[in-house]
Design brief:
This protein is 26% helix and 42% strand. A hairpin with a 5-residue loop joins β1 and β2. The chain is globular. It has one domain (2-27, 37-273). It is an alpha+beta fold and 293 residues long. It has helices at 2-18, 31-35, 42-52, 57-60, 111-130, 144-150, 182-187, 279-284, and strands spanning 63-74, 80-93, 96-104, 107-108, 151-161, 164-173, 190-197, 202-210, 214-216, 222-224, 229-238, 241-255, 259-274. The chain contains eight helices and 13 strands.
């Protein structure tokens, strides 16, 4: 699942960079009220979002959902050559997203594959328990303050998105800024647009594309080609909490200086439900439904 690993990194990087996702809801504003207010300063808005992002982390850890990724290998003409799928149970530990693969190409994991996945998730849960929520598990962390040094933001405006007032702005990486680490390096190759739900201060929609080739390991490991793009969506679940509902992307890349790939990915997130976690259960990453009232 080459694309899944690269795409997953890009989505998580973009979310970490562009806007923290979980913020307590502010009093709802009507479209008319919002239209009569000045557009808030984008930089101040983003700092406020970052300051409040931790408030619903514990609530978020009571939820799980299913993520279904469909990955298509396509040729230069856009014809599908191969299709694969991965289904996972997604949940949160100490502020970190954990993805546990349960099916590949529609077939449940079994035997050695199941044992290997259980061991991987157990180690990841243990690491998440020891890693502050302010840090990424892969150590690729960029604060909003640092992001605002790397990105130019412009054209702030109001739009109605899916029937709700949103604050929208465009962003683009500043190519001459000195950066450190994969996440910072990737951020200055991107441009895109972000929709923030005005009343809930949540990311409603994100669109990002590469404006330059992005070389990983000086291009020796991989090169993501200019024009590769993806989008991301969230929606309210309950009590001011928003969770992902899907993502889509198109990737052109070259791996190890040899193999060129073209892939299209669609992710659907669904089946949101509340669950209870015990210490022992978290260690083994199993879901226990809440007791009936």
């Amino acid at each position: 699942m080459r694309f899944r690993k690269i795409f997953g990194f890009l989505v998580l990087t973009a979310l970490a960079l562009m806007a923290p996702q979980f913020v307590r809801a502010a009093p709802a504003a009507t479209a008319e009220q919002a239209a009569n207010q000045p557009v808030p300063d984008v930089r101040q808005l983003m700092m406020e979002v970052e300051q409040h992002q931790r408030q619903l982390e514990k609530v978020r850890e009571n939820y799980t959902y299913t993520a279904l990724m469909t990955i298509q290998d396509v040729d230069a003409g856009g014809q599908v050559k191969k299709t694969e799928s991965v289904e996972s149970d997604d949940f949160f530990v100490n502020g970190h997203l954990i993805e546990r693969t349960v099916k590949k190409n529609g077939q449940p994991l079994s035997g050695h594959d199941l044992e290997k996945e259980n061991a991987r998730v157990t180690k990841l849960v243990e690491k998440a328990e020891q890693t502050p929520s302010s840090q990424r598990l892969d150590q690729q962390t960029v604060t909003v303050g640092r992001l605002l040094q790397i990105m130019d933001v412009n054209n702030p405006r109001r739009e109605t998105f899916r029937g709700r007032p949103t604050i929208v702005f465009d962003f683009r990486g500043r190519k001459h800024v000195k950066t450190h680490g994969l996440a910072e390096d990737a951020s200055k190759k991107l441009q895109g647009t972000l929709w923030i739900d005005e009343s809930d201060r949540q990311v409603a929609h994100l669109e990002v594309s590469f404006v330059q080739d992005f070389r990983i390991g000086a291009g020796l490991l991989a090169t993501v080609k200019k024009g590769s793009n993806f989008s991301f969506d969230q929606a309210p679940v309950s009590n001011g909490l928003w969770l992902p509902t899907g993502a889509e992307g198109n990737m052109q890349a070259r791996l190890l200086l040899l193999k060129g790939i073209r892939q299209h990915l669609v992710e659907h997130d669904y089946g949101f439900k509340v669950f209870q976690v015990t210490t022992q259960q978290a260690k083994h990453a199993e879901i226990v439904p809440p007791a009936s009232q």
